[in-house]
Write a structure and sequence with these properties.
155 residues, mainly alpha, elongated
C-alpha cells in the first residue's frame, strides 16, 4: 500500500519547493555587484586591448584570473562564504534553448559592432564592443536572468 500524504504534509512540501525556487531566484538577484564588476571588467579589458596593444598580454591574463577567482568564489561554499553571498546556482537546470538565448544578445552585439565598424570604417571597434557589452551585463543581464528563471518555473 502507498501512504498518501496528509493535506498538511502536502502543503508543507509545496511550500518547501516554492521557498527553494525563491532562494534560487534570490541568489541571482542578489548579485548586483557581480554584474557591475563583470561589465566594468569587460569594458576595461576591451578598451585596454584596443587602445594599448602592448598591454594585450597582461590584460588577457588579468581578466582570466578575475574570471577564475569569481567562478571559484561564487560556485563553492567556501568561496561564497568568503564573499558573503549565497552560492550561485548553476544554469544547468535551464534548457539548452534558454542557455543559448542568454548568450545570444552578447553575440548579437559583437556581430552588430563588427558590421558597423567594418562597413563605416569606424576605428576602435573593441572599445565600442566593450562599452555595449559592459552596459548589457550591468543593466540588462540581471533582469534577463530573472525572466528566464521565472519563465522556466511556469513551464
Amino acid at each position: 500500500m502507498v501512504n498518501e500524504p496528509t493535506p498538511d504534509e502536502a502543503v508543507a512540501a509545496l511550500r518547501t519547493i516554492h521557498e527553494s525556487r525563491e532562494r534560487v531566484i534570490a541568489s541571482v538577484a542578489s548579485s548586483r555587484w557581480l554584474s557591475i564588476t563583470g561589465g566594468v571588467a569587460v569594458f576595461l579589458g576591451c578598451a585596454a586591448s584596443d587602445l594599448l596593444p602592448p598591454a594585450q598580454a597582461w590584460v588577457g591574463w588579468a581578466i582570466l584570473g578575475l574570471v577564475v577567482v569569481l567562478a571559484l568564489g561564487l560556485t563553492t561554499r567556501s568561496g561564497s562564504a568568503f564573499l558573503g553571498r549565497p552560492v550561485l546556482v548553476s544554469d544547468r537546470s535551464l534548457s539548452v534553448a534558454a542557455r543559448l538565448l542568454r548568450i545570444a544578445p552578447i553575440l548579437g552585439i559583437g556581430i552588430a559592432v563588427a558590421v558597423v565598424t567594418g562597413t563605416l570604417d569606424v576605428p576602435h571597434g573593441k572599445v565600442y564592443y566593450g562599452a555595449l557589452t559592459g552596459l548589457y551585463i550591468v543593466f540588462v543581464d540581471p533582469g534577463f536572468k530573472l525572466w528566464l528563471l521565472r519563465r522556466q518555473e511556469r513551464d
